[in-house]
Amino acid sequence: MNVKEQIKQYIASQPEQKSSDMQELHQHILEVLPKSKLWFLDGKDDKGKIVSNPNIGYGSYSIKYADGTTREFYQIGLSANTTGISVYIMGIKDKKYLATTYGKNLGKASVTGYCIKFKTIKDINVDILQEAIRDGVEITGKSN
After folding, report:
1. Residues forming beta bridges with residue 56, ordered by sequence position
2. How buried is residue 50: exposed, middle or buried, by Cβ count under 10 Å (0-12/13-18/19+)?
3. In 3D, which of 101, 110, 105 has the Cα closest to residue 127?
4. Three-state SS for 86?
């Protein structure tokens, strides 16, 4: 199964409202990053043990580890969680940036260093989310 099929299956496997919201968010992210690399992580480690929620990824950047090694990873992530949906904006070094720049205008969302978490798409301002994604990708491109 290719990545697009895995993403479609993952979104379809969610409860109806969450599936609809995730499909809409998927389209919005693709509008912001139309030519980005698509990823699907099933949440399992090399041994098949579940270690996280499955994630849809968009784009690509290089993670630099303390030991000097690097690894390719996605810039933007989308995932269902028990209480709603999470959007991850990876690679921003300033852990307060998202919350201070976008937190107040996003709507009913909790914003941490790299995660924007909300219950449904109706709770957030999608235009502001898209702006945060564009900004995060631009910052990551400059900092890595």
Report:
1. 40, 78
2. exposed
3. 105
4. strand
- Give the span between the Cα atoms of 64 and 46, in whole angstroms: 21
> Can you read off the two tokens belonging to residue 127?
């235009």
Which tokens go with 17?
Answer: 């409202």
pLDDT in tens, 23-73: 999 999 999 999 999 999 999 988 999 889 999 999 999 988 899 999 999
Structure-token pair, residue 30? 């693709």
Q: Which residue type sits at 58? A: Y
102 burial (CB, 10 Å; 0-12 / 13-18 / 19+) is buried
Query: Is the whole model's pTM more than 0.90, yes or no?
Result: yes
